[in-house]
Design a protein that fits this description.
The structure is a single chain. The chain is of the alpha+beta class. It is 35% helix and 29% strand. The chain has three helices and four strands; from the N terminus they run E-E-E-E-H-H-H. It has helices at 53-62, 65-70, 79-96, and strands spanning 13-18, 24-29, 33-40, 45-52. A two-stranded antiparallel ribbon has the order 1-2. The longest helix has 18 residues, at 79-96. The radius of gyration is 17 Å and the shape is elongated.
């Protein structure tokens, strides 16, 4: 299973371990992934996801999954998140009509 966030596709970064003698060896900085269930108020559904802790904080700050998806540009989202956002947009259009 790839260590990637299900919402924003955040993946591992690379860098160096640096010793006291300034020797540098390559390393990976893994993403802090959390298994969570996020509820969509508008759709009345729950979605199980594996997202980064940083993304989870952003979702809480924005006011939930619906507000987060509607306020995030499509090119930043994963395919799974785009499908949920598409359902939300379709629901809003049907309410407006």
């Amino acid at each position: 299973m790839a260590r990637r966030c299900d919402l924003l596709d955040t993946g591992p970064m690379s860098g160096n371990n640096v010793s006291h003698a300034m020797n540098k060896t390559r390393r990976r900085f893994e993403v802090n992934l959390c298994n969570v269930t996020l509820a969509s108020d508008a759709l009345g559904q729950k979605f199980r996801m594996r997202i980064a802790a940083k993304t989870l904080r952003t979702v809480d700050f924005k006011g939930g999954l619906d507000a987060f998806l509607m306020g995030t540009k499509n090119h930043k989202l994963t395919d799974k998140a785009k499908k949920i956002k598409k359902q939300l947009v379709k629901l809003e259009e049907s309410k407006a009509a």
